[in-house]
Amino acid sequence: MTQTSTGRIPNLLRWLGLTLVVLMGLQLAALLFSWNWELEPFRQLFLDRLVGEAPMALVGLLLMLIAQRLEAPQGRTALHWLAGVLASLLAIAMAVAVPLSIQAEGALLNQAQQQDAAIAQQATQLDLQRQQVDNPAFVDQLIAEAEKEGRIPASASKAEKQQKAKEFIDAQIRPQLEQAEKQLAQALLGRDLAVQQRRFGGTGRAIVLTVAFALVALVALV
Asked: Is 16 helix (H, G, I), strand (E, B) or coil?
């Protein structure tokens, strides 16, 4: 490898690192210009954006330090100080994000508890409807309604009437119950995923990133 190509690698890494850090800043700038911390949805969006984009800045800072290490193995340069200051600021931001994310997780848990009552009520209604479908009295009620509407001839035998009612149940009522069960399962899954995503993807990630940025700051400044 020639000296020219060797010198290009640190420059490439340096600019890639700076680009990644700037990209994170641009992602946050869109929210900073629409700042409204009083709104809970905005706080959650800002935390998600901050913690979600931080790994990109972490990689950018590491690339900057690696580039400077390749170019000047000894001593501290302006790039070291820049990376150290940015890493320190981001470490502080991640540390602040941890309690805020825990607070947001608590709000999600409260919402989940409120949803539990509605979900439990829907589950109870589904159980009652499933039991009703298997109830012979319900089948007789369907037969009576079908005879009034002319869908089942009054002259049909009892077996034919029951067969028609069973076909109606299998074609109309059971698919509706199955669809309602799927929607209920999706609601439960969505509730659990939201809580776990906030816990691990928000709070847990913020803790890990706090440590990572602190280590980068130490490497750059010490």
From this structure: helix
pLDDT in tens, the chain (222 residues): 455 555 688 889 999 999 999 999 999 998 888 888 888 888 888 988 999 999 999 999 999 999 888 877 676 788 889 999 999 999 999 999 999 888 877 777 777 777 777 777 777 787 777 777 777 777 777 777 777 777 777 667 777 777 777 777 777 777 877 887 888 788 777 777 777 777 787 888 899 999 999 999 999 887
Contacts of 213 by beta carbon, 8 Å cutoff, 6+ apart: 54, 58, 61, 87, 88, 90, 91, 94
Residues 6+ apart with CB under 8 A from 21: 57, 60, 61, 64, 86
Interatomic CA distance for residues 212 and 56, integer angstroms: 12
Determine contact, residues 27/53, Cβ cutoff 8 Å.
yes
68 phi-psi bin (left φ>0, alpha ψ -120 to 50, beta other): alpha
Question: Which residues lie closer than 8 Å to 73 by C-beta, 6 or more apart?
Answer: none
DSSP-based three-state secondary structure for 222: coil
Per-domain boundaries in the chain: 3-221
Give the tokens for residue 211. Answer: 């440590």
Q: What is the model's pTM?
A: 0.68
Residue whose tokens read 């060797």: 6
What does 114-176 look like in DSSP terms, one character per residue?
A: HHHHHHHHHHHHHHHHHHHHT-HHHHHHHHHHHHHHTSS-TTS-HHHHHHHHHHHIIIIIHHH
